[in-house]
Amino acid sequence: MNETDARRLWIRLFLPFAAGYFLSYLYRTANAVIGPVLARELSLGDNALGLLTSTYFLAFGAAQLPLGMLLDRFGPRRVEAGLLVIAAAGAAVFALSDELGGLAMGRAMIGLGVSACLMASFKAFAQWFPPERQASLTGWIMASGGLGALAASKPLELALGFASWQEIVFALSVATLAVAATILFVAPDKPVETGGSGLAEQLAGVKRIFSSAHFWRYAPMGFWFTGGFMAIQGLWVARWMTVMEGLDGAAIAGRLTLMSGAMLGGFVFMGFFATRLVHRGIKLDTIYRASMLVAIGLLALISSLPTFAGNLLWPVLGACFSLSNVSYALVAQAFPSSLSGRANTALNLLVFAGAFGLQWGIGILVDALQAHGWAGDTAFRSAFFTLLGGQFLALIWMLRPRRQV
């Protein structure tokens, strides 16, 4: 492939899928800013707000296993374009609803509709680019998600100053339809190597992945750390800053902007340097382990010293999270390309199960502790330390020595 062909492929393949993941991450994290407005207008408690926000993760996670089979069977272009139409419809339902049931339904439809955005990108990259470029491409696609998170912070807070949340979400619905059309009509297609196209063969591939010790080495960290960070970033970081630090909406949006900017910096770093680091003998597994160790230490400091450490270390925690996504490449490398879609979505299932369960669970725990007379700050700190305990156990599991077979 000459330079002109490579540039054309980048424009036709990478940019449409990057736009889809931008929207996916924007939808995922928007409730950190919109959530307080919804809670005020609809009189939602922490439990209800946690459930509403986490329905995105529930639908997203439930779609992962069938999504992996669809990607391996029909290819990323058709699958993502079709699902984004569902996301657009969900955003319209959300924008037109004024009660919890309708909002939850719309949020779940959005989660289902954007469930392919990252995994379809990984599948497309595996089809069109050599293995040594996968880590850098992962960094670049995650950078587009980082831009979405950035857009869901201070820019979204500013937009709420001159437009209602309903108008903003409806505009996102229109944008989602436009991206779906772009992927369908612009992105290139490639014959799919299915490794067996029947349902029995597809399910056998799923069984092979879930029977793999290599997969289960990383799966608990996906649940507790990656899923846990999503749960915090998508909702509870804003409530934490309100309760623990007394910040107002503008200050929280500014802090979220710094956090998202640090994430974006980490993604760009991986885009520029991941392939170079591998060529120099630095293993992706080493980068992943180091970033997880630092991240757990940071969350412990934030939970212990919220006023001091939180002001300094939330952005650094965001940067560490950006490096955690190399786990998808680490898991997929143990399987043939015909199973790459199912391998990545299997890990993503665990990630989003964690995001849903932990996001809702934090709200349940905080409400329960407060109902028993605990102060709000003590309840939130206890919830965060519970999350930290799960992350610590998952880290020990990942780092423990394995027998060489």
3D architecture notes:
The protein has 405 residues and is an all-alpha fold. It has one domain: Up-down Bundle (Growth Hormone, Chain: A), CATH 1.20.1250. The radius of gyration is 20 Å and the shape is globular. α3 runs antiparallel to α17 and α12 packs antiparallel against α15.
What are the key terms here?
18 helices, single chain, globular, 405 residues, mainly alpha, Growth Hormone, Chain: A
The count of strands amounts to 0
Rg to the nearest angstrom? 20 Å
Helix content: over 70%
Which percent range describes the beta-strand content?
Answer: under 5%
Look at the structure and give the CATH class. Answer: Mainly Alpha
**Oligomer designation:** single chain
Instruction: Domain count, please report it.
Output: 1
For the largest beta-sheet, the strand count, sense and barrel status come to: none
CATH architecture level-2 label: Up-down Bundle
Label the structural class.
mainly alpha
Average predicted confidence as pLDDT: 86
The separation of the N and C termini measures 39 Å
- Reported by name, the CATH topology is Growth Hormone, Chain: A
Shape: globular
Query: CATH superfamily name?
Result: MFS general substrate transporter like domains
Low-confidence stretches: none
Order of helices and strands: HHHHHHHHHHHHHHHHHH
**Count of alpha and pi helical runs:** 18
